[in-house]
Specification:
The protein is an alpha/beta fold. The chain has a single domain, classed as P-loop containing nucleotide triphosphate hydrolases (Rossmann fold, 3-Layer(aba) Sandwich). About 40% of the residues lie in helices and about 15% in strands. It contains ten helices and ten strands. The strands form two sheets. The protein has an eight-stranded mixed sheet, sandwiched between helices. Strands 1-5 form a two-stranded parallel ribbon. Helix 3 crosses helix 4. Bound molecules: adenosine-5'-triphosphate and magnesium ion. The site of adenosine-5'-triphosphate has 20 residues, from helix 4.
């Protein structure tokens, strides 16, 4: 084992222990291929439609949390339980998922976790894509939403017109909307603060998950952190560098990082 690997392992163990979360010991997913969505024309969907995810789409997006008997889904059930326990104990309502860099698996983990939580009968979940510069959560659903968060914030599109219902009960998606350049300024708008507050306080049994941009690539997470109760860091095995993860945690030192998930790809 070389030095870097050792350091990674140590950081992994320390973070997992301090978080009270088990790292994902093995990949919950098959590692081959990629989303293969970008560049493909996706059907345009609005809030009146229910987004039904086919098995093919679920597989392509590496969504496994809905499986009833599978080790991969069990990993997300365990993560769900650990997170729900922390959130209930601390009375947290909002969780942001981030990582050091692009492509670490934030959206994959966020969507699987959201589905897993929504399948726990007591919980409703709203999953919001807040990467306003490079939004892509909708690609996991195989659709192009007509409107999203940036349209609400900048063009006064009513919020209900931005929300997507999924064929998974109790799960609502707020897509990011049309990509915009001045994303951190937009996330810093009073209208965003009011929305974050409203989403958090309106329904007591609703948990909000924010799929955030990467910490080292954009200042957006810092602009948004004041609106979230807790942060989950994704570390991608074989990709995330120890120095970057450490830098990331430094940058998030004022945030409430409740744990780290090791996303492993073979
Ligand atoms: N454990 C895994 N095994 C194999 N492939 C994975 C795994 N996790 C994620 N992927 C794939 O890696 C790619 C990047 O994942 P994802 O889009 O979830 O990352 P991200 O951190 O949200 O990226 P971005 O910062 O660009 O939004 C996707 O093609 C996804 O299917
Ligand atoms: Mg993403």
């Amino acid at each position: 084992m070389d030095k870097l690997e050792k350091a990674m392992q140590k950081a992994r163990q320390e973070r997992a222990m301090s978080a009270g979360l088990s790292p994902l010991a093995s990949s919950p997913f098959a590692a081959q291929g990629s989303l293969l969505q970008s560049g493909r024309a996706l059907p345009v969907i609005n809030s009146k439609d229910v987004v039904t995810l086919t098995e093919e789409q679920l597989d392509r997006s590496r969504i496994v949390a809905h499986h009833t008997r599978s080790a991969e889904a069990d990993v997300f059930r365990l993560l769900r339980t650990q997170i729900l326990q922390i959130m209930a104990r601390e009375k947290y309502r909002t969780l942001a998922i981030t990582s050091a860099d692009y492509g670490d698996g934030k959206s994959t983990i966020a969507l699987n976790l959201a589905i897993s939580i929504a399948m726990d009968l007591k919980q409703t979940v709203l999953l919001a894509d807040i990467d306003l510069r490079k939004p892509n959560l909708h690609e996991f659903l195989g659709i192009e939403p007509e409107a999203g968060l940036s349209d609400y914030l900048l063009h006064d599109t009513p919020l209900p017109e931005c929300l997507l219902r999924l064929s998974f009960e109790r799960l609502t998606i707020l897509p990011a909307g049309k990509p915009i350049e001045r994303s951190s300024e937009t996330l810093g708008l009073p209208k965003m603060a009011a929305l974050a507050h409203e989403m958090k306080t309106r329904y007591p049994d609703r948990l909000i998950i924010y799929d955030m941009p990467p910490v080292l690539a954009q200042d957006d997470p810092l602009a948004f952190i004041p609106h979230v109760d807790a942060v989950l860091m994704v570390v991608r095995e074989g990709k995330s560098k120890t120095a970057d993860v450490t830098r990331c945690l430094d940058i998030l030192s004022n945030a409430n990082v409740i744990g780290t998930v090791l996303n492993e790809a073979f």
